[in-house]
Amino acid sequence: MTTPMSTNTALDADEDGEAVDQKEFRRMIGSLLYLTATRPDIQFAVCLCARNQASPRTSHRQAVKRIFRC
After folding, report:
1. For tag attachment on the chain, is the N or C end more exposed, with fewer CB atoms within 10 Å?
2. Contact by Cβ (8 Å): 64, 9
3. DSSP letters along the chain, please?
4. pLDDT per residue as tens digits for the range 13-68
């Protein structure tokens, strides 16, 4: 894995996906935002994921976990 986000991923509002814990998702986004101070290469991917904080789904959490693994 060389990129923080898959090039063919579209992180739109996923109405059909299973909802995930909103607090956990926001904590993960907060941690990633902290990391962007030293890792500017993940900033765009984190911004895209942060757009879905109101109703995060499984697909959004998978994208966030990919950024953590990068």
Report:
1. N
2. no
3. --SSS-TT------SSSPB--HHHHHHHHHHHHHHTTT-GGGHHHHHHHHTT-SS-BHHHHHHHHHHHH-
4. 777 889 999 999 999 999 999 999 999 999 999 999 999 999 999 989 999 999 99
This prediction has a pTM of 0.84
The pLDDT assigned to 6 comes to: 72
In degrees and rounded to multiples of 5, residue 14 shows phi and psi of -95, 95
Integer Cα distance of 65 and 67 in angstroms: 5
